[in-house]
Write a structure and sequence with these properties.
This protein has 14 helices and 15 strands. It is of the alpha/beta class. It has 2 domains: 198 residues, Rossmann fold, CATH 3.40.50.2000; 168 residues, Rossmann fold, CATH 3.40.50. The strands form 3 sheets. The chain has a 7-stranded parallel sheet, sandwiched between helices. Helix 4 links the parallel strand 5 and strand 6. The longest helix is centred in the first third of the chain and has 19 residues. The protein is elongated.
Length: 380
């Protein structure tokens, strides 16, 4: 006789090695699942990430140190063994009714997913980012046949199916939601933040928010600034920080202003003329949704807004080429045509308004309940 299962305790596994969009999404999802259902939510992540996760205020969720981080320099077998051991420990300590594995990359759960499968834990696997790639010669044995699998966009879902040897129809899309607009006066915020940079209200100010790395196109920023003769406020940290610091020091016009990692970049969307998204790879970029929610026009590469398909050119100025010259042209089209910039920003705001947390939480709950049913039990 098949028994019933309750969904009272959720273990959320986060195999990340830094704080970014995946981790911010995870913390908010945990808090909203807790608020929506009253279930106990436990987030397990690398000890170094816990202070940052706590600062994101996942209300009601308990944080647990666990050596789950995906480290690129580590041998795959060592990483898998470490993750598996930590996952087994967490399962023994917490006895969850279900698990949600939030993966920043397809192989980031190579140890924890088989451990969940072996323990027959109902599970939802959510993939945030995946590159274009050829089908692997050998499909990894991750125990996904018994899991519910989702991705944050249709392109990532397609790549997940390819990487994991799944039928495309079995990978659901659980989209990233947009935040609420900032409750602040745009004109006053514009004056205040521009004054902090020594700029007047009429100066051209562009914004970049993200990790300072090649995947985000951060090395293109000096070339974009030079071509547009515009100031770029750069919010973020990463391996290209030193390169950008040097470029800023060598630029006598002071066009590059590095702000560092901001706890809340939202006011800068009100102050800037446009957001730059020169990314080479994205899932469903939260930074675009933040800009859209706050009425900031966006200039982007095609890869940056791939998640939005045919909607992309209706909500942003899309570069013809994914280099500094192409991005400069796309941004200049916004700076030189305020009416078009306003129309694109309005369309993006409408898109963002349709991506709300309530719908995402309901869909996540549906997938988790589906995982419980798939595991062979009814829901109590």
């Amino acid at each position: 006789m098949i028994g019933t299962r309750r969904l009272d305790r959720l273990l959320l596994l986060l195999p990340s090695n830094r704080l970014g969009g995946t981790e911010r999404h995870t913390a908010t999802l945990a808090a909203r699942l807790k608020a929506r259902t009253g279930m106990a939510v436990h987030i397990a992540a690398a000890p170094a990430l816990l202070p940052g996760l706590a600062a994101l205020e996942p209300e009601g969720a308990e944080l647990h140190p666990a050596e789950l981080a995906w480290e690129g320099a580590e041998q795959a077998e060592e990483r898998a063994a470490r993750q598996a051991a930590e996952t087994r420990r967490l399962l023994d300590d917490l006895h969850p009714d279900a698990a949600l594995a939030a993966l920043p990359w397809p192989d980031a759960g190579s140890g924890l997913l088989p451990a969940l499968a072996k323990a027959s834990v109902p599970r939802l696997v959510l993939l945030h980012l995946a590159p274009e790639a050829e089908p692997p010669e050998a499909v990894p044995s991750l125990g996904l046949d018994g899991a519910m699998v989702a991705a944050v966009s249709s392109p990532v879902a397609r790549r997940a199916a390819l990487a994991w040897g799944l039928a495309p129809s079995t990978v659901a899309v659980l989209p990233n939601p947009a935040p609420r607009p900032v409750a602040a006066d745009r004109a006053a915020t514009r004056r205040t933040l521009r004054a902090a940079l020594g700029l007047d209200a009429s100066a051209r100010l562009l914004l970049f928010v993200g990790r300072l790395e090649k995947a985000k196109g951060a090395e293109l920023l000096p070339g974009i600034a030079a071509r547009l003769k515009a100031t770029i406020a750069i919010a973020g940290e990463g391996p290209l920080r030193e390169l950008l610091d040097r470029a800023a020091a060598e630029d006598g016009a002071g066009r590059l202003r590095l702000l560092g990692q901001l706890a809340d970049p939202a006011p800068w969307y009100l102050a800037a003329d446009a957001l730059l998204l020169p990314s080479r790879l994205e899932g469903a970029p939260l930074v675009f949704l933040e800009a859209a929610a706050n009425g900031c026009p966006v200039a982007a590469t095609p890869a940056a807004l791939e998640a939005f398909g045919e909607e992309a050119p209706r909500v942003a100025s899309i570069a013809d080429t994914s280099d500094a010259a192409g991005m400069a042209v796309a941004a200049a089209a916004l700076l030189g045509d305020p009416a078009r910039a306003e129309a694109l920003a309005a369309a993006a705001a409408r898109l963002a308004a349709g991506r709300h947390w309530a719908g995402v939480v309901d869909q996540a709950l549906g997938l988790l309940r589906g995982a419980v049913l798939k595991a062979g039990g009814g829901l109590a």
